[in-house]
Amino acid sequence: MRFRILGPLEVRGAPGTSKALTPRAAKIRVVLATLLVRANEIVSVDSLIDELWGEDPPRTATTTLQVYISQLRKLLHAVDPELGRDALVTRPPGYELRLDAAQLDLSVLEELHGRGRELMDRQDYRGAADLQRRALGLWRGPLLSDTPHGPLLDATAVRLSEMRTAALEQCIRAELHLGRHRSLIGELQEATAELPLREEFHAHLMVALYRSGRQADALQVFARLRRGLVAELAIEPGRALQALHQRILVGDPALLRPTGRADRPEPAPSVSAARPAAGTGAGAGGGAGAAWTGSGELPAADPLFTGREEELAALVEALGPPAGGLVVLSGPAGVGKTALALAAARRAGDGFAGFALVRLRPEGGRPLDAAGVLEQLLRRFAAPGTAPVRGGELPRVLRQSTAGRRCLLVLDDAASADPVRAVLAAMPDSTVLVTCRGVPDGLDGRLVALGVPSAPDARALLLAAAGATASATEPGAGAADVVELCGGLPLALRVAGSSLGARTRSSLATDLAAYGPVAPVERALWL
Q: pTM value?
């Protein structure tokens, strides 16, 4: 069975067959669509009733829903007599549609987009562009465009629209790194027309035009965006876009040279897992003789990371020998855990044979379970000559592929202990650095608690985010007021500083104070 929801709903039989049995009745399409966007999760009866009838369900809603479920089971059995009847199961308080990831275009999209983000972090621009193009190619139109939407489908449509925009932006950015600027101009002109206030697409179009010898056109793009922002929102373009405008205005020759390298590796094979090729692994010396492909590349350094020397030294010390072990970096949301973790990894990186960053809650995607984390690590560290294996073999294969090598693994934003324990068991020689808001039950490692930065560090971060002119715009007490209003949280300080760098009409502290008795972080984020 194959299901397609990135456009009109389609239900098809096995590959190679032409059988299509998409339900015609709108209500049955709604039930099926709701189960598909929450595939392999329990969808409650109440949620399905809300999706079908909203706030005015009939008295017979539960009975009618049971009829729809029965009809869906018959349809799935007709599409695939072997697996269809068992795919839709009753599980209190509702129903669950069990699918493999390859059966649903939405799952494939999330997988491709997530892997593309990984390759982009590793500066593998060719691989990232290929994966994001494949993700974009799955779209046939708006989500479930032939199916009525209730609250759950509406929310999913918004989320996936943002994911599609993010995939397009990352694809274009990667292709600009590869020097494909001429072929991107038309696509970027279409994107800026569709999203007239999204600065990143205007920046990409400016770069593409400038590299194509069209400096005047690139400057016109900036002027047009600036007029729109001033007219619609009464703000100036952001500091980064203004800096790009200045570079184009003076004809910066460095901007003409793409930064991607032609010899970047192609994307990893589209497999869920891998095992060592013949001649490697335990039979050839317990894994020590396997070819090592672990990446030593760290994401690009954060240009705004400022201060935190005491916390950074403590974290680097915690990451040191003995080999293996768990380090937990905990702190509230927005306090800068990820930035500090990556800075510590960069400082301690020489002591490790490989590095991996796994975001446990990918942007626009679902939280990763233990198997998903092991899959990502195996794609990073697998030996050459791999072949697909079943999920139960992931820990063994990963252990063989990394035996005897001390790697540094950053697991970002952990909500439970299960993925962390799975990694520790599969890579016992490595050091695992976990960031989390609260320490999950069952994790026992060296703990580093992170609070808000000191007042000097917070002020330095605010000024760095606002740019070189910030000290003249918000001197002395003004910067201290902003730090206090933001509660000292780095996330809020970055947003406030960026807003300050774009403002010329008034004091940021005055603007923040005008919002009255609301949370400091909310004041900063509203700007």
A: 0.53
- At residue 211, does pLDDT exceed 50? yes
- Rounded Cα–Cα distance for residues 338 and 330 (Å): 10
Other beta carbons within 10 Å of 110: 19
Give the Cα-Cα-Cα angle 345, 123, 385 (nearest 5 degrees): 95
Q: Which residues face 408 on adjacent strands?
A: 355, 431
Distance from chain centroid for Cα 326 = 24
**Residue 295 one-letter amino acid:** S
What gap in Å lies between CA 499 and CA 519, rounded to an integer? 18
Q: Is 54 exposed, middle or buried (0-12, 13-18, 19+ CB in 10 A)?
A: exposed
CATH classification for the domain delimited by 292-384+393-449, as one of 3.40.50.2300, 1.10.3720.10, 3.40.50.720, 3.40.50.300: 3.40.50.300
Q: Per-residue pLDDT for 278 more than 70?
A: no
pLDDT of 518 over the 60 cut: no
Per-residue model confidence as pLDDT tens digits over 351-370: 677 788 888 887 555 788 88
Decide if domain 106-145+156-256 falls under CATH 1.25.40.10: yes
**Higher pLDDT among residues 476 and 125, named by residue:** 125
Distance of alpha carbon 292 from alpha carbon 397, whole angstroms: 13
Residue range 445-491, pLDDT digits in tens: 888 899 988 888 888 888 777 764 444 444 445 677 778 888 888 88
Architecture of domain 2-103: Orthogonal Bundle (1.10)
* Contact residues for 524 (Cβ-Cβ < 8 A; gap 6+): 485, 486, 492, 493, 495, 496, 499, 512
